[in-house]
Amino acid sequence: MSSGNNSYGDIHRYEPPRESTAAAIAIVLLTLIEVAFVGMFSYGLATGWGFDEFGNMFLGALLAVIFVDLAFILLLYRKEFLPDVMIVKKRRRKWEDLYIKESDMEGTQFGGNAWENVKRAVYPYYKK
Fold it and tell me: Pfam families of this UniProt entry (predicted)?
């Protein structure tokens, strides 16, 4: 759904999430698998698998599987349960670094208006 308003900060496009039941079931199953792997990793740390050569590699592989499983959970959640929103933003030119004027692009005179320089240093997005 696209809106015709182009004011800065307005929502340009909003697509609601699908919220599929299959994705919710998959997230629950992946979470149960995640808990099982975390339990196995904790058990391995507590019993000293890390002191053995192959046990250390096994703990590293378990840790990798834990993070990959977590990545899939987050991917499914982002894809299925978060809306797709595009917000209109202001496009700035390269010289517009902190809302400076085009006349100040080459720099300003040292000690010109000291109070304005202090205000701009304290609050860089000060509106003119």
Answer: DUF7318
